[in-house]
Amino acid sequence: xxxxxxxxxxxxxxxxxxxxxxxxxxxxxxxxxxxxxxxxxxxxxxxxxxxxxxxxxxxxxxxxxxxxxxxxxxxxxxxxxxxxxxxxxxxxxxxxxxxxxxxxxxxxxxxxxxxxxxxxxxxxxxxxxxxxxxxxxxxxxxxxxxxxxxxxxxxxxxxxxxxxxxxxxxxxxxxxxxxxxxxxxxxxxxxxxxxxxxxxxxxxxxxxxxxxxxxxxxxxxxxxxxxxxxxxxxxxxxxxxxxxxxxxxxxxxxxxxxxxxx
Length: 262
What we know:
Elements: E1 6-11, E2 14-19, H1 30-45, E3 51-56, E4 61-63, H2 68-72, E5 99-103, E6 106-108, H3 110-117, E7 120-124, E8 128-130, H4 144-151, H5 154-163, E9 167-168, H6 169-175, E10 180-182, H7 187-199, H8 203-214, H9 225-239, H10 242-252
Parallel strand pairs: 2-3, 3-5, 4-6, 5-7, 6-8, 7-10
Antiparallel strand pairs: 1-2, 8-9
């Protein structure tokens, strides 16, 4: 048995979840999805938990998004995963407890989508954000295509979404995509300090405030339902295309993709 795909550690009333696949830059597979989903379920139902900090193992990547090599091999199955978890166990999983993403390195594709899902983001100076799916023949199907436009000015979001180019931590701070940028060595200290500030407040008040601000009702966000349905429909159509097959294959083969537009 190897290392678990995600590590869960309790520090007083704060739960630390660490994406733990540093050998593939914490790319998301089914095992990681299950581990994070279960940890968030437990944190949400434990009255003694007041905040969650989510980070990545290693010093290079927070999360490189979906494990495209696993996708190319047909090994990314959702069988046995709870439907309310979503990608990485979190993107359709709006728990009442505040979640702080401590972004320790680049957060591309699904990594940025996890950051968009989180309530607060503390980033290392070496972090980078972006949605490069258009460079792979796929789309930002884990909420990125609509959450980025909701959280940033439209023109800024569209440039990031349509070019697929990354954004530095400093630029993400200027745009309001993150709350803090700190040296890598101080990342978890800063994330826990923010979590402690939040946790010092009345927990039921904090949770009610989050539910109102995020539009959470009965464990979901009804206002996002139409956007998820559009995402699913567009993704289903796109994944039948030749380009959607070419993108992950070219990535796995470490070559430039050859697009056909069909």
